[in-house]
Amino acid sequence: MAATRTFSIIKPDATRRNLTGAVTKMLEEAGLRVVASKRIQMSREQAEGFYAVHSERPFFGDLVDFMISGPVVVQVLEGEDAVKRNRDVMGATNPSDADEGTIRKAYAESIEANSVHGSDSDENAKIEIDFFFKPEEIVG
């Protein structure tokens, strides 16, 4: 299988606790390579745009508030079957359901503050990558 790309966010709960390196290490150990990365303070407009798919859900406002509460690290990851590989290493959304050895089992504080986001499909990975990165920022 050829290498593909996916998108990842290290969320404010993890950056606040200085876990960027630890999370990135777990991603790399899972066979993913960081081909673009930047630490940003997401604006309200960015967060609302990125999570627009959830705009009608009751948790939307809290999600946006959380994502702008501190810096995040947005990354493009590359590897064989990158979306699946990333989702496997992230673990279940609810950290109490996550398997041992996953990022969320190790670092998530709660179902809301679950340390990482990852694309759920190749199609969404492209959309999410394009939302935060220009092609010239991705150096494989």
From TrEMBL:
<dbReference type="InterPro" id="IPR001564">
    <property type="entry name" value="Nucleoside_diP_kinase"/>
</dbReference>
<dbReference type="GO" id="GO:0006183">
    <property type="term" value="P:GTP biosynthetic process"/>
</dbReference>
<dbReference type="GO" id="GO:0006241">
    <property type="term" value="P:CTP biosynthetic process"/>
</dbReference>
<keyword id="KW-0418">Kinase</keyword>
<feature type="domain" description="Nucleoside diphosphate kinase-like">
    <location>
        <begin position="3"/>
        <end position="140"/>
    </location>
</feature>
<dbReference type="GO" id="GO:0046872">
    <property type="term" value="F:metal ion binding"/>
</dbReference>
<keyword id="KW-0808">Transferase</keyword>
<comment type="subunit">
    <text>Homotetramer.</text>
</comment>
<feature type="active site" description="Pros-phosphohistidine intermediate">
    <location>
        <position position="117"/>
    </location>
</feature>
<keyword id="KW-0067">ATP-binding</keyword>
<feature type="binding site">
    <location>
        <position position="87"/>
    </location>
    <ligand>
        <name>ATP</name>
    </ligand>
</feature>
<keyword id="KW-0597">Phosphoprotein</keyword>
<protein>
    <recommendedName>
        <fullName>Nucleoside diphosphate kinase</fullName>
        <ecNumber>2.7.4.6</ecNumber>
    </recommendedName>
</protein>
<feature type="binding site">
    <location>
        <position position="93"/>
    </location>
    <ligand>
        <name>ATP</name>
    </ligand>
</feature>
<dbReference type="GO" id="GO:0005524">
    <property type="term" value="F:ATP binding"/>
</dbReference>
<dbReference type="GO" id="GO:0004550">
    <property type="term" value="F:nucleoside diphosphate kinase activity"/>
</dbReference>
<comment type="function">
    <text>Major role in the synthesis of nucleoside triphosphates other than ATP. The ATP gamma phosphate is transferred to the NDP beta phosphate via a ping-pong mechanism, using a phosphorylated active-site intermediate.</text>
</comment>
<dbReference type="GO" id="GO:0006228">
    <property type="term" value="P:UTP biosynthetic process"/>
</dbReference>
<keyword id="KW-0546">Nucleotide metabolism</keyword>
<keyword id="KW-0479">Metal-binding</keyword>
<feature type="binding site">
    <location>
        <position position="104"/>
    </location>
    <ligand>
        <name>ATP</name>
    </ligand>
</feature>
<feature type="binding site">
    <location>
        <position position="114"/>
    </location>
    <ligand>
        <name>ATP</name>
    </ligand>
</feature>
<dbReference type="GO" id="GO:0005737">
    <property type="term" value="C:cytoplasm"/>
</dbReference>
<feature type="binding site">
    <location>
        <position position="59"/>
    </location>
    <ligand>
        <name>ATP</name>
    </ligand>
</feature>
<keyword id="KW-0963">Cytoplasm</keyword>
<dbReference type="InterPro" id="IPR034907">
    <property type="entry name" value="NDK-like_dom"/>
</dbReference>
<dbReference type="Pfam" id="PF00334">
    <property type="entry name" value="NDK"/>
</dbReference>
<keyword id="KW-0460">Magnesium</keyword>
<feature type="binding site">
    <location>
        <position position="11"/>
    </location>
    <ligand>
        <name>ATP</name>
    </ligand>
</feature>
<dbReference type="InterPro" id="IPR036850">
    <property type="entry name" value="NDK-like_dom_sf"/>
</dbReference>
<keyword id="KW-0547">Nucleotide-binding</keyword>
<comment type="similarity">
    <text>Belongs to the NDK family.</text>
</comment>
